[in-house]
Design a protein that fits this description.
Elements (H helix, E strand, L loop, with lengths): L41 H17 L8 H12 L6 H38 L12 H4 L2 H45 L12 H17 L3 H4 L6 H15 L8 H16 L4 H14 L4 H15 L3 H12 L2 H6 L1 H17 L1 H6 L13 H17 L8 H20 L6 H16 L5 H14 L5 H16 L9 H18 L5 H10 L51 H22 L2 H7 L5 H16 L5 H6 L10 H15 L4 H14 L2 H17 L4 H11 L8 H17 L8 H8 L3 H4 L2 H12 L2 H24 L5 H18 L3 H17 L4 H9 L4 H4 L3 H42 L4 H13 L1 H21 L8 H14 L1 H6 L1 H17 L1 H17 L3 H17 L1 H4 L3 H6 L6 H16 L9 H6 L6 H14 L6 H14 L5 H13 L4 H16 L4 H13 L4 H9 L1 H4 L6 H17 L2 H45 L2 H6 L3 E2 L5 E2 L1 H16 L26 H30 L1
Antiparallel strand pairs: 1-2
Helix pairs in contact: 1-2, 1-3, 3-5, 3-6, 5-6, 5-8, 6-9, 8-9, 9-10, 9-11, 10-12, 10-14, 11-14, 14-16, 16-17, 16-18, 18-20, 19-20, 19-23, 20-25, 21-23, 22-23, 24-25, 25-27, 28-30, 28-31, 29-31, 30-31, 31-34, 32-34, 34-36, 35-36, 36-37, 36-40, 37-40, 38-43, 40-42, 40-43, 40-45, 43-45, ...
Length: 1353
């Protein structure tokens, strides 16, 4: 009989000899004669392997324990890497087939031994067979023991060698893979790693070993559990294979390893070691988490034993929470493992969740995130069964309720990651219909509140949660509040008819507290009717549903009968819950509008998605909020632009072209100027992409031409407006309907909708060059006649005429070949219609003399129109000149490009070089500039001493605006007059300089805020055109920010933002005025200023960094509340991100403290210091600059700010720096106490001195004071009480120095301040000093009394 086989630590350990070499009996099977196969030739090696395979297959299964065969197998396994593929396959198959045959024999052996035992017990004897062998001999106890030992030995040996082959081959594969990567990187030809298919063989081997663990091994090992040596070998190598990520990608291999681990830990109770190894692997490798969870869950399912999972949960629960703070990777892996385990074993984890709940108090947010995910899995899966007793159901419901309360509580977690994770879990629960109606509104309220969270990831999760809650809501596809209110009122009446007065709150509590009233999907149990409350269909599309559900709106007064009183109560409570949900979501609309202006792209994208979902469910206010989405098309963030474009297509573009056209024209009608600009950008892009098809454009033409029944003039105008938007980027859109534009746009329909004429003018401006020529040749005179009548006529209303005339004049300059001729005719006709027989010179003289007779005979409206026409013609003439210059320059550049491209002759090249040397090319540009400047100057000033038409108008306008009497009598003239004056000032520099004083006077003193707003905008245009003229007036321009009118301030912010951000105005000097507007009461102004500083911080190296000290100094001296100052500086400092700038600011602010003596400025500067983001370098600079601010540390507020800085620095400082920071903290605390003591000592001394002086004045008689004689002591010395006190006081101050003071008896007064910092050790000394002072004062008084008595004698 062979000695027993004991699993060695390594393969080579089998060659180690036993201690007793002379003994003939061996206690374990080991290698005696190893063979070096490396010396074999390939043919010899092949014969050697074949011979071994033959022996293994021909002899008994136990032959492997024979010493010779054992040594041969060992030698081949040891040199397995040197074998050829055929030899490898031959050896593996031999060993694997023998083990697979051995496994059934183990079962047979077990049954045979059991049956033999029973027969022996009954006294039965079996006769032998034909060979004469006796069965009784086989059943002998000794034979059975030997057979079991042989089976056990063979079982162990086969298992050991097969596992060693797997380990060796995997090691060789890994090294070969690394070698191949190196070779591939060096550019050489890659060699094949394996010449034989190893992966299937590995899977078969490990599957066989896993199967061997699942058979009954109790007889082989003599107990229910195999020996420790065997289990240790299997588990150790199984876990080592888990560390190979590539190996786990093979499904068969992975499943086999998982079965091996689960069987050893569960069936054979190898629990403690397995738990320790699993936890170690989880902490170390993230790729093993899912597979280990599968192994644990598979063991529980197969053996109905959750001991392994329970042990792991306990092990994780026992871990110190602080350990997870240090090991962040391990914490994340453990959390992932717990979630996977809860997903697979929800009921088992729910019974052990109490072990994990204490970790909610730990500092690791990753563990808290995982526990939140675990609770979500348990709520969704662990309580779905309805079987069991009533008591157990009650316990489960209470457990579930406790978990839900924890989830609600965790929404307020200190970590943003955990808050975000909680909201994600709630979203998953809503998708799985695991939230009841009673809890639905509570979750919605939490999500709505988190929309204002400071963290972007939390806001994103909250938005997603609300989107999912809308999609899966249990109240129906329409959530309009009015519909719910109407239905609820009817069912409340029905409820009143069915029973006594019900308490709504009680009903509400009944639904929320009684889970039986709702099913798992959160839907009310109502078997009789399902027509009122419907569950949201899971297949509801994300796009907007065009068919609105109007069933509830059109519901008859007779509501359906839902059953008895209880069912009606439940329905009423459900309707109330639906109404509350609708109002809760509707209340978030203002927040969503703010989020669409967020700097975070995720906020904008998810807000748009939520608004689309709200519109789909008819939430009140969602339609209006979606209109505010349009300006986001100008965002530079492509993700935001794509979100807006996709939302626009989803909402407004339909398959039916008529519906698309109707949506677009209605949107154009309802939009303001800003939205129209955004809509124009979107429509142009969609037409170019083809999302708005030609059939949709054709439908728009049908609306414009009134080809669709029921079309109104307003709809016609909206359709033409959309077509103009499309024509801006796509030429030829308007070509086919030029005649219709003229006939309808300026025909009778223009009187029905006056804005139609203005839109028609825009359309004529947008036609292509070819269409302009065609229009002029066929209908030119008619078109210009219509435009002239529109400008000079009075058939348009007053409020529409200005906008229409603006576009009409621009259209004339756009399509007329010589627009200046027609424009001059328009100005003359307008002038004659106003003044009639009055001449220009006569009119100017009367205006300048202040005469009112002329103006009283002129219609104010006509005069205003004339001023508008004259100034607008002048402005368009300037634009026309600039466009002509650009055409000339463009033509010249084109010709030069063609000349360079063409093969010019040598002579031409020579001429060009000569021209370049002489500067003739540059002179051409100079001539063009001269002509351009001359043309521009002639518009207002004229080319000679005589003024032209606009020049006369300019003089008249200037004198009109200066005539205060006229302006006060006709205030409407001031608006049109100043607007005309500003336009002419923009055109001509001399005219601008002559009237600048007037303009700034009006912008400051005009009573009309419209006039002030127009002048403020004009100042911005003047600053762009004539920056040198406006530079001395910069302070006056900033002063517009203090205007009492909101519109003026808003325009001033916009103008200054434009000038500063485009480098047209210097920032320094008055930027503090803009900073003050950060705290403006009007939210729009505040937001505009915030946007300005945000954009300013992006320029260069952030100009705010350089401006901050100047802003700080000026804001400190202004009358600002402390809260406003802090808010302004906090925002500005928040825009500085660079560490170097922060470090420099620390130094600057510290030195600034040394330069000021005002306590308020100390407090303000220290507050700014506390708002900086401190790094190690900035903390060192703060400590190095201690001398600069040590004198300010006596102030409590300053000290509080420095304590805040220190606390902030401690959190992120390295250990070395942290020590210095703590020393620095002690230093400033000590200094603060000393400074406070000094101040209190000085204050008390002054109070005491004042009191003593007052007492001395009372004692000395008035006549003695008048005579001026001094008191004489008994010794003949002249003394003065005040002098004596001054000496004693000086000694007192010197002796008390920095020590604390305490006043007693007569020295104590209500005005004196007692020091809060008392030193017990110095109390006696202080009292003795005070008593001596007191005695001196008393002696002084006695001496004075004696002197007085002597004189009286």
């Amino acid at each position: 009989m062979a000695p027993p086989f004991i699993f060695p630590q390594t393969l080579l350990s089998l060659e180690e000899e036993e201690e007793d070499e002379n003994s003939s009996d061996y206690t374990r099977l080991s290698v005696r004669n190893p063979i070096s196969i490396s010396s074999f030739q390939p043919s010899e090696l092949e014969e050697f392997v074949k011979g071994l395979s033959f022996d293994l297959s021909d002899k008994e299964l136990f032959c492997i324990e024979e010493q010779e065969i054992f040594d041969r197998v060992y030698s081949l396994v040891k040199g397995f890497g040197c074998l050829t593929p055929a030899c490898k396959l031959n050896l593996v198959e031999s060993l694997r087939s023998n083990l697979s045959v051995l496994l059934p024999n183990v079962d047979l052996l077990t049954r045979a031994s059991l049956s033999g035992t029973r027969r022996n017990a009954n006294g039965d004897v079996n006769e032998g067979d034909g060979d004469g062998e006796v069965v009784d001999e086989e059943n002998d106890d000794g034979v059975v023991v030997d057979r079991v030992a042989s089976h056990r030995n063979a079982f162990k040996i086969y298992t050991f060698f097969l596992v060693q082959i797997v380990l060796i081959e995997e090691e060789n594969s890994a090294s070969a893979a690394n070698t191949s990567k190196t070779v591939a990187a060096s550019g050489r030809k890659r060699l094949p790693v394996h010449a034989w298919n190893w992966e299937p063989q590995r899977g078969r081997i490990l599957t066989l070993i896993a199967n061997s663990l699942e058979i009954n091994l109790s007889l082989l090992f003599g107990s229910s559990d195999p020996d420790e040596n065997y289990l240790s070998f299997i588990v150790k190598n199984a876990f080592s294979m888990f560390e190979n990520a590539m190996l786990l990608k093979d499904t068969d291999t992975k499943d086999a390893i998982c079965r091996m681990v689960g069987t050893c830990a569960t069936k054979y109770h190898y629990l403690a070691q397995s738990c320790a190894s699993i936890v170690h692997l989880i902490h170390k490798y993230d790729f093993v988490v899912t597979h280990l969870a599968n192994a644990v869950a598979g063991a529980e399912k197969k053996y109905s034993d959750g001991s392994l999972a329970t042990s792991l949960v306990r092990e994780i629960g026992r871990t110190n929470p602080k350990d997870y703070v240090k090991d962040t990777v391990g914490a994340e892996n453990v959390g992932h493992f717990l979630i996977e385990l809860a997903d697979r074993l929800p009921k088992l984890i729910s019974t052990n969740i109490g072990l994990l709940v204490p970790h909610f108090g730990g500092e690791s947010y990753k563990i808290r995130n995982a526990l939140v995910g675990v609770l979500g899995k348990l709520v969704a899966k662990a309580f779905n069964d309805v079987e069991g007793e009533v008591s157990s159901k009650s316990i489960r419901l209470r457990t579930k309720q406790a978990m839900l309360e924890i989830l609600l509580e965790r929404c307020r977690d200190v970590s943003a990651y955990t808050r975000s994770r909680v909201l994600q879990v709630w979203a998953e629960l809503c998708e799985e219909h695991s939230v009841s109606i009673g809890l639905w509104n509570e979750v919605a309220a939490v999500a709505a509140g988190r929309l204002e969270d400071k963290s972007a990831i939390v806001r994103k999760s909250a938005l997603n949660l609300l989107i999912i809650m809308l999609q899966h809501n249990p109240f129906g596809p329409q959530l309009r509040a009015a519909s719910f209110e109407a239905t609820l009122e009817q069912y409340k009446k029905r409820l009143n008819e069915l029973g006594p007065k019900p308490a709504t709150e009680d009903v509400r509590d009944e639904v929320s507290s009684n889970p039986d009233s709702c099913n798992g999907d959160g839907e009310v149990h109502d078997e009789d009717t399902g027509t009122v409350i419907k569950e949201q269909d899971d297949s509801l599309p994300d796009s907007y549903l065009p068919q609105e559900v109007d069933g509830i709106d059109q519901m008859d007064n007779s509501v359906p009968d839902v059953g008895n009183l209880e069912q009606t109560r439940t329905l009423v409570a459900s309707l109330e819950a639906g109404l509350r949900f609708s109002k809760c979501v509707s209340a978030t609309m203002p927040i969503l509008v703010q989020l669409m202006a967020s700097s975070s792209a995720s906020d904008v994208e998810n807000s748009i998605l939520l608004l689309m979902r709200c519109r789909q469910f008819h939430i009140d206010g969602s339609e209006a909020c979606l209109h505010k989405m349009l300006p986001l098309v100008f965002s530079q963030d492509k993700a935001i632009y794509d979100a807006v474009e996709n939302a626009f297509i989803t909402i407004y573009v339909r398959k039916n072209p008529v519906e698309t056209a109707k949506n677009l024209l209605n949107l154009a009608i309802d939009s303001n100027i800003g939205d129209l600009a955004a809509l124009e950008s979107v429509v142009g892009a969609l037409v170019c992409k083809g999302d708005i098809t030609a059939s949709s454009l054709s439908a728009l033409w049908d609306f414009f031409c009134f080809n669709i029944n029921g079309t109104t003039a307003e709809q016609s105008r909206g359709a033409l407006s959309v077509l103009c938007m499309a024509a801006k980027l796509v030429t030829g859109v308007l070509s086919s309907h030029l005649q219709d534009i003229v006939d309808i746009g300026f025909g009778r329909w223009a009187k029905a909708d006056p804005l139609l004429a203005r839109t028609a003018c825009v359309a004529l401006q947008r036609v292509s060059e070819e269409d302009k020529k065609r229009l002029l040749s066929t209908n030119g005179s008619r078109v210009f006649g219509i435009l002239e009548s529109l400008i000079t006529g009075f058939w348009l209303p007053e409020n529409i005429w200005y906008a229409a005339a603006d576009r009409a004049i621009a259209t004339i300059y756009s399509i007329h070949p010589t627009p200046e001729i027609l424009a001059s005719s328009l100005v003359k006709k307008s002038l004659s219609s106003v003044f009639g027989c009055f001449g220009g010179d006569e009119l100017q003289n009367e205006v300048s003399n202040g005469s009112k007779s002329t103006i009283t005979t002129v219609h104010v409206t006509k005069l205003s129109r004339f001023l508008f026409v004259a100034s607008h013609v002048a402005m368009n003439q300037l634009v026309y000149i600039e466009s002509c210059v650009r055409k000339v320059q463009k033509g010249k550049a084109k010709r030069e490009k063609m000349a360079h491209a063409a093969d010019a002759s040598l002579e031409a090249k020579k001429d060009n070089s000569i021209n370049a040397e002489l500067g003739l090319a540059a002179s051409e540009d100079a001539i063009l500039d001269t002509l351009s400047n001359k043309s521009e100057k002639e518009i207002v000033s004229g080319g000679s001493s005589e003024k032209n038409l606009i020049g006369y108008c300019g003089s008249f306008i200037s004198k009109l605006c200066r005539n205060i009497a006229l302006i006060h009598k006709y205030p409407e003239l001031q608006a049109s007059g100043m607007l005309a004056l500003c336009r002419l000032m923009i055109i001509d520099a001399d005219f601008c300089e002559a009237n600048l004083q007037l303009l700034f006077t009006v912008v400051e003193s005009a009573q009309s805020e419209t006039v002030r707003s127009n002048c403020t905008v004009a100042l911005g245009d003047l600053a762009v055109r004539f920056p040198n003229l406006l530079e001395p007036w910069t302070e006056k321009m900033y002063a517009r920010l203090r205007d009492p009118s909101v519109s003026v301030t808003k325009n001033a912010v916009l103008v200054l933002s434009h000038l500063i951000l485009n480098d047209m105005m210097k920032v320094k000097g008055y930027i503090n005025e803009m900073a003050i507007c950060l705290e403006d009461e009007d939210e729009r102004i505040s937001n505009l200023v915030k946007l300005f500083f945000h954009e300013l911080s992006k320029k260069g190296t952030n100009p705010i960094y350089n401006l901050l000290p100047d802003i700080l100094g000026k804001l400190s001296s202004q009358n600002l509340t402390r809260e406003s100052f802090c808010n302004i500086m906090q925002f500005l400092i928040g825009s500085i991100k660079r560490d170097k700038q922060m470090e420099s600011l620390v130094e600057k602010l510290c030195h600034r403290i040394s330069g000021v003596t005002d306590i308020t400025q100390w407090e303000y500067i220290s507050y700014c210091l506390s708002q900086l983001a401190f790094t190690d370098k900035s903390m060192r600079k703060l400590m190095e600059s201690f001398k600069s601010y040590e004198h300010a540390l006596s102030n409590d507020s300053v000290m509080d700010h420095f304590r805040s800085i220190i606390n902030k620095g401690k959190k992120f400082a390295k250990p070395e720096l942290k020590t210095y920071i703590e020393e620095f903290e002690d230093k400033i605390n000590k200094l603060h106490i000393e400074k406070k003591d000094q101040e209190l000592t000085t204050q008390n001394a002054r109070a005491h001195k004042q009191k003593v002086e007052n007492m001395g004045i009372l004692v000395v008689p008035k006549k003695e004071e008048e005579s001026g004689e001094s008191a004489t002591t008994e010794d003949g010395e002249v003394t003065d009480p005040s002098t004596e006190f001054s000496h004693s006081y000086s000694k007192f101050v010197k002796s008390n120095g920095n020590s604390s003071s305490e006043m007693t008896e007569m020295e104590r007064d209500e005005d004196e301040v007692q020091s809060p910092y008392r030193n017990p050790r110095g109390a006696t000394k202080s009292r003795s000093k005070k008593s001596s002072i007191k005695s001196r004062i008393v002696d002084s008084h006695a001496s004075t009394r004696r002197n007085i008595k002597s004189k009286r004698r």
